[in-house]
Amino acid sequence: MPEPRILVLGAGPAGAATALGLRRLGYPITVVSDWRRFAALEGVSQRVLEGLRNAGLGGALAEAAMPANREVRWNGQHLQLNQEFLLDRQCFDRALRQDLERAGVTVVEGRIREVTRKGVHCVGMDDGQVLQAEFLVEARGRQAPLGADRLRGPETVSLLNLWQGEPGPSASAVESLDDGWAWMARRADGRCYWQITLDAAGLPGKAVLPEYCAAHRRGSALVARLFGAQALAPAQVHARSSTAILAGECVGDDWIRVGDAAMAVDPLSGNGIFQSLSSALQAPVVVNTLLRRPERAGLAKRFHQQRVEQLFLRFARIGRDFYGQEQMRAGQGFWARRQGWPDVQPLHLAADWQAVRVEKRPVLRDGFVDEAEVVVTADQPLGIWHLQGVELAPLVRGLRDGLAVEDVLKDLPLPQQGMLRRWLGEQGYC
Prior knowledge:
Layout: E1 6-9, H1 13-24, E2 29-33, E3 41-44, H2 46-54, H3 58-62, E4 67-74, E5 77-88, H4 89-102, E6 106-109, E7 112-118, E8 120-125, E9 130-133, E10 135-138, E11 150-152, E12 156-164, E13 171-177, E14 180-186, E15 191-199, H5 209-218, H6 221-227, E16 236-241, E17 245-247, E18 255-257, E19 263-264, H7 272-280, H8 283-292, H9 297-324, H10 333-336, E20 357-365, E21 368-376, E22 386-387, E23 390-391, H11 393-400, H12 405-409, H13 414-426
Parallel strand pairs: 1-2, 1-10, 2-6, 4-13, 10-18
Antiparallel strand pairs: 3-5, 4-5, 7-8, 8-9, 11-17, 12-15, 12-16, 13-14, 14-15, 17-19, 20-21, 22-23
């Protein structure tokens, strides 16, 4: 019996990582994607580079090798931080497609007109071509259609400005403003990028956006020093939504959402590529379970949905805390709307040994979603299965039954004993 055909809609980091993972599991994969319609630059960290490497995106990783000195002006402070890597998204997108083709993935370029379900998934292209598959991966980012059931943050827009300046050392910076915040970067070849993130409401019309943005730049000493006089003139503007959005449903029996199509977060919450990879790396195992172990479909869907929701809340709280650091503007409109969203729960909850418990939860095992006993803590509500290869449930169960920690750990090597003692201390055990 032939393997089910799988269509991945979108060739960004999430779609590419999912496609490569499914290809390694033996599935025939077709990725459908249109080219990015505007030039963009993105600042990424070393952690993002490691995530790309782990996902098998070696060619794309080679494109992310433009280090830049970074500085931050936030809450009245001026800090010089570590380097970040400037990533040309058009070059990066091209490298992603090359990684896919080298792995044996079919890449179809073009604009998707409609997606319908007629026994199989049918994807109609602008050129009249219709692609069919038994399973669909939705990875078109914020462009993916969303259902009504979703969680939305404050309505936010980012205005990206581009112009050509004089060649010079690569650099990037972030600064807070009264009505939002700006990220800016200059490549060694002189290409300059400045992006301001603002409330979506109250923006002027499209025709005056270039001057509106230029006026913001004229009021910034950081912009003048980083770019020079060219930055003070109006430039090309591309507007895009930056509203945090969680899809209501992220997985079904024959479809799954990954990356920004599942959860798109505020850009202050962290790097978008890292966030996309966070939900996509688990997707191949979920899809593999849905197709080859349909009796575990409920378990697989619960695993993906819960983890997407937890990732979304975690990233949203990271963004909230960064907004909260801007105390000089606390209570002001833009900042006030984001300093208490999505909730007031701390990013990390205090350790409480009495709250630690053992429960059965979905886990990833041998290429499939399975069920196992995990340890649920205040800070890890989905549970921890093992720590560096050691299952934690037997340890916690033994302690709950009254055994001494020495008896529970006695059969383990000394380095693992030390590691587990440290973990127990972090959970409030004494």
